[in-house]
Design brief:
With about 350 residues, this protein is α/β, with parallel strands linked by helices. Helices cover about 40% and strands about 20% of the residues. The chain binds nicotinamide-adenine-dinucleotide (NAD) and uridine-5'-diphosphate-4-deoxy-4-fluoro-alpha-D-galactose.
Length: about 350
Amino acid sequence: MATILVTGAAGYIGTHTCIELFAAGHQVVALDNFSNSKPEAMRRVARIAGREPLFHRGDIRDRVALDTLFATHAIDAVIHFAGLKSVGESLSEPLRYYDNNISGSLTLLECMGRAGVRRLVFSSSANVYGDPHTVPVTESFPLGPTNPYGRSKYMMELMLRDLAAAEPAWRIGLLRYFNPVGAHESGLIGEDPHGTPNNLLPYISKVAIGKLEQLNIFGGDYPTADGTGVRDYIHVVDLAAAHVKTLQALEREAGVQTLNVGTGTGYSVLEMVAAFSRISGCAIPFRIVGRRAGDIACSYADPSLAHAVLGWRAQHDLDAMCRDSWRWQQGNPDGYPDD
Ligand code: NAD
Ligand code: UFG
């Protein structure tokens, strides 16, 4: 058993990872400033796990708060989710993104170093590949993010590699997530975007439940089988499990492990619409509109390195992703309640 600090614990991936950490027997110290989440999410985590995370409301940019946190708890490793994640927002507010994602991460790293905690799992993104041109995407593909959000992940990857090279005591997992979807099977926690969702599955589920009229499909003329964009959707519970496996791998492996976390299968937008409609029993009206700026045609992972290093593979199929997203949507049509 280890004590793990989870930053951004109240968020979509953080909540699901807290559950998996508890299930693996770890203690969880949770940190979040609720800039993109609500306190109710942490209460739901406690309800599912039957255990209370040691929760601290705070900001990763707050050096004093972090030093106090490391002095209060005997933390063995950090899983660092806290950050801003909207590509569109990052284009209009780049400095807010760099401040949160870069300055915040640097402050966290300094405080970790001071406290002698040198194990870290960092949330990177398939966004660092930019347009991969060919698929499946392996970790050795060239990197070239095309927006401030992706660049913030890319810069953090570079800094973390420099850090591990300078101080070999650091053990770091850089997980490049593909497209997380789905929710915990309890239906108690899930993705809770503010306002109109940007991402496909949250948008589809709001159309299915009748809160949005129809889906706009961004582009029907991509060089894919049906002309719509193809992505590697991965169930958030599988993604959460990969973090627990990464902590185990860092016990064995020194240095930096850079791993794609995806299923290895790509689905088109039209395939996602059909699957969600079949699982929910609801019509999903859609129309095909112009391409969204910055989108790529096709991206899916080669996840074989994660399998080799972690002994991890995604377990949930597309039906489970849709079923669990739909259960969460039906049970929480307005997301988490405010306090
Ligand atoms: P999320 O927004 O649901 O969770 C992030 C959490 O961090 C939120 O609860 C937010 O309140 C908190 N937070 C933000 N800034 C903070 C700060 N300065 N101090 C303390 N807390 C702060 O996002 P998520 O989907 O759970 O993503 C988690 C991580 O994974 C992010 O770093 C994101 O960039 C990365 N990622 C997400 C996706 C995705 O599609 N969801 C894909 C690739 C990578
Ligand atoms: N799409 C639509 N209509 C919508 C929303 C999305 O047609 O209303 C399409 C997109 O054009 C794309 C696919 O559905 O073809 C998936 O789009 P998402 O916005 O769900 O996901 P992206 O792959 O564009 O981006 C996501 C995250 C990024 C992250 C990236 C890789 O939003 O932050 O996955 O991990 F970097």
